[in-house]
């Protein structure tokens, strides 16, 4: 890992500020001055101004996001944020985004490389949404959602879609464009009235009340790593089996 990323992950400074510390000669690696291109491994000793830097524990948190809370680290207008709902040791930030009025599964972590892969559309893991919509989508609307819907930022990748009941649709996406579910459903004539993310990859909210959270266990983290390494990009998603329509 690059020295600036190591310092950022350890909570010493942002990457940019870490670069300044490195350039100022205040950072040493195994007693030698660190450079901007220095890589840090598990056994290296890093110090700033002669004081050793502790490695930060990697944390993975699954939050049941309630409505009315912003998916951001800090809001200049002082509105409540998801980061405030989760304890601070060490600090984690959200992977991707849910709209303020969307509820459901939100992952937060301080593992930057994994977060990047999870959020990338090519490698992005599946996200399952349950939407309550105006009207009652018919098979034609579901087919359009599955095939890809033309939006103003391009056509969506093939998705899985099924009707759960009158005016209720489940959509499984691996993309994460802004307001994607709402825009897709509006485009097929069924604006969303309520939206919940029921699962992130295989992680569901079972046993987690709105506003509550839990740490993932090592097997769950490993499963996320595998899911993000596999990549569920648009190259292969078209071949996925569609679930049978709900009765
Ligand atoms: N799609 C949306 O429209 N909103 C969300 O919050 C998440 C996905």
Describe the structure.
- This protein has 247 residues and is an alpha+beta fold.
- The chain has 2 domains: 51 residues, Structural Genomics Hypothetical 15.5 Kd Protein In mrcA-pckA Intergenic Region, Chain A, CATH 3.10.290; 174 residues, Pseudouridine synthase (2-Layer Sandwich), CATH 3.30.2350.10.
- The protein has 8 helices and 15 strands.
- Strands 5, 6, 7, 8, 11, 12, 13, 14 and 15 form a 9-stranded mixed beta sheet that branches. Strands 2-1-3-4 form a 4-stranded antiparallel beta sheet. Strands 9-10 form a two-stranded antiparallel ribbon.
- A hairpin with an 8-residue loop joins strand 6 and strand 7.
- The radius of gyration is 21 Å and the shape is elongated.
- The C terminus is likely disordered.
- Uracil binds next to helix 6.
Write the layout of secondary structure elements.
Blueprint: H1 3-9, H2 15-23, E1 27-29, E2 32-33, E3 46-48, E4 51-52, E5 60-65, H3 82-85, E6 93-94, E7 103-109, H4 112-119, E8 127-133, H5 139-147, E9 150-151, E10 154-155, E11 160-165, E12 168-173, H6 180-187, E13 192-200, E14 203-204, E15 213-215, H7 218-230, H8 234-237
Parallel strand pairs: 7-13
Antiparallel strand pairs: 1-2, 1-3, 3-4, 5-7, 5-15, 6-7, 8-12, 8-13, 9-10, 11-12, 13-14
Helix pairs in contact: 1-2
Residues 98-99, 102, 179-182, 195 line the site of uracil (URA).
Any key phrases for this structure?
alpha+beta; Structural Genomics Hypothetical 15.5 Kd Protein In mrcA-pckA Intergenic Region, Chain A; Pseudouridine synthase; 2 domains; 8 helices; 25% strand; binds uracil
């Amino acid at each position: 890992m690059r020295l600036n990323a190591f310092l950022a992950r350890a909570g010493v400074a942002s990457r940019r500020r870490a670069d300044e510390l490195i350039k100022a000669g205040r950072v040493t690696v195994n007693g030698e001055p660190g450079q901007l291109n220095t890589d840090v491994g598990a056994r290296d000793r890093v110090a700033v101004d002669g004081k050793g830097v502790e490695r930060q524990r990697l944390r993975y948190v699954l939050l049941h996001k309630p409505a009315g809370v912003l998916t951001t680290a800090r809001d200049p207008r002082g509105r409540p944020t998801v980061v405030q709902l989760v304890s601070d040791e060490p600090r984690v930030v959200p992977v991707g985004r849910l709209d303020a009025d969307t509820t459901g599964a939100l992952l937060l972590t301080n593992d930057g490389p994994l977060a990047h892969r999870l959020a990338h559309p090519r490698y992005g893991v599946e996200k399952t949404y349950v939407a309550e919509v105006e009207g009652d989508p018919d098979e034609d609307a579901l087919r359009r959602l599955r095939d890809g819907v033309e939006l103003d930022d391009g056509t969506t990748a093939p998705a899985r879609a099924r009707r759960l009941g009158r005016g209720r649709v489940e959509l499984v996406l691996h993309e994460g464009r802004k307001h994607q579910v709402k825009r897709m459903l509006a485009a097929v004539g069924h604006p969303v009235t309520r939206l919940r993310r029921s699962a992130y990859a295989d992680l569901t909210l079972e046993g987690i009340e709105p506003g509550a959270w839990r740490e993932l266990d090592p097997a769950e983290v490993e499963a996320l790593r595998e899911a993000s390494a596999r990549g569920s990009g648009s190259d292969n998603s078209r071949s996925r089996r569609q679930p049978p329509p709900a009765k």
